[in-house]
Design a protein that fits this description.
Blueprint (H helix, E strand, L loop, with lengths): L6 E7 L2 E9 L7 E9 L6 H5 L3 E7 L1 H6 L5 E6 L12 E6 L5 E7 L4 E4 L14 E2 L1 H10 L2
């Protein structure tokens, strides 16, 4: 299953319905999505208003594949404009550890290139981790983003 930027996906969770919006499609990675915070008992009437919701978290996850293989129960319910603050490809962070397991520095990736920082600013600490989140981890994170 292939999703496009702007697609709104409804995901059935144990505690209700969750919504995510696909923000980016990278040639080498799965979909980048933003979780639209909260759990719903029923589908909101206006998905465009839903798309203007605050981003609970951003992640890379093979959402289309997970839905296709029934690891996640969900479907595309429409397409809406991506909020301006989420239009740019997000910066992801990844710790690089030394032999002792301590973080030696951080790689910051903007979808095209890497740069490194020896320490993170408070803003950079909020960047999502550069990882492809499993379906199970993604569902757990959605459930926690009440």
């Amino acid at each position: 299953m292939k999703f496009s930027p702007g697609d709104i996906i409804e995901i059935e969770g144990a505690n209700g319905l969750h919504y995510v919006q696909v923000t980016h499609d990278h040639t080498s990675y799965p979909e980048v999505v933003r979780a639209l915070g909260g759990t719903h008992d029923s589908r909101p009437a206006d998905i465009h208003e839903l798309a203007r919701s605050e981003t609970a978290f951003t992640a890379m996850t093979a959402l289309g594949s997970a839905i296709e293989n029934e690891r996640i129960s969900g479907s595309r319910i429409g397409n809406a404009a991506i909020p301006e603050q989420d239009l740019a490809f997000p910066i992801f962070r990844m710790p690089i550890r030394n032999k002792q397991g301590d973080i030696a520095y951080w790689w910051l990736w903007n979808g095209q290139g890497l740069r490194y920082e020896t320490g993170l600013t408070p803003e950079a600490e909020k960047y999502p981790m550069r990882e492809v989140m499993s379906a199970e981890a993604f569902l757990r994170r959605l459930a926690e983003s009440l």
